[in-house]
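Before going further, learn to read the protein records used in this course. Taken together, the tokens spell out the fold as the letters spell out the chain. A record is reproduced here so that you can trace the correspondence yourselves:

***
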Amino acid sequence: MYQVGRNFVSTEGERLGRKGKRIFVNALETHEDLGTLAKLTKWILHNPQTNNVILYFPRHFRVFPNAVSPLACMIDYLRHLGVKVTIHNDVPELAETNFDAPLVPSEESIASASIPSGVVWKYSSPAEVASLLDVVLDYLSRKLVCEGGVLLALEWCIGEMLDNVFQHAHVQSGYFMFQLQQERRRLSFCVADQGIGVLNSFSGSRYRPISAVDAITLAIQRGVTSNAECQGNGLWGASEIITQNRGQMTISSGGGAVFYNRQTGHIKNFDTVYVLDRDNPGAIVDVQLDASRSIDLLAAFHGDFEPVNLRMESLEDAQGFLVAPIKKISVGTGTRAAGRDMRCYIQNLIQDSGRPVLVDFAGVGIVSSSYADECFGKLYRDLPTDLLGERLRFSNVSPTVKLIVTNAVGMRHKG
């Protein structure tokens, strides 16, 4: 239930404040803020007569995946325990994330979520992981121009982090959110769960970490796993990708947190992060990558293995072309917005593989001049002509469409 919060107490200067069973969340941006929220919530619930927590979010609250995904996870967990959680929210951007009722990957929810970024997804099965991964990669391929290897690296990282919930957390559901910064060509995503946590997951294994931070740093090492059926390369592989890409990663679990910033070379450890439930402290993995920096996965994994790009293989025809059917992929052929998305899709195919790309116009009777300019005119503007001559092909182009596209490309070259 959302209400417009009008009865705020003065919490000026505080990131989070409490009065009675009300918590005023002015800022929720770091693992320390999440720890404070857990501490205030637990304080309220110490009273056996209290079974209700009220969260207030003021207008200036800023939305980030590394806070909103864990927030959704915590709210769901409290409600699972029978706690009534009431939301007073003055932030439209926060309401749009569905943090109070996360989306479950399905044909209906995916179709209704026209923009899958900036919303919280709750997944509870490998099939839902596969559906979620498909919709995320499809969206990124249209909206984020990525240098070579970035999309495959993202597919691998996100898939590993989503699956870790099932393999190590001993819990049925995970929570995921991603967000684009298109101008900076950066992507951030966060996976959260309320499972047993990294430290507890090593119980019964041959490893004996003595603290939450020790457990996290151990889990990042190559070949280390709490589950004998796993290879132990998930977090290690993510850290190697982040190293090559100069990205960032924060892992928080069980009262400890490790922050790794490859851009600055800083690694920070925190061992006093408050958790809601010591037996089920959960885990939060927050990753940020730069799409403008190429990623060589074979080099990142030291030549030992290279993930198969199943998405690319699914597009390949009998002649070895990666087929991009305009009618199927493009949302119409009449607007610049549709042309921009299609250009991004084609450019990512070219930059993420060494194979030729075949743009198929089958079933397309007409394209607007603005669509042709935004897609093909700017494609020839942005990429080397010799690269496009070698790697780009067209099929099933009507004479009218060919004339419009040729004119658009010619005008860009003339300009």
Q: What stands out?
A: The first helix runs from residue 31 to 45. The CA atoms of residues 80 and 358 lie 50 Å apart.
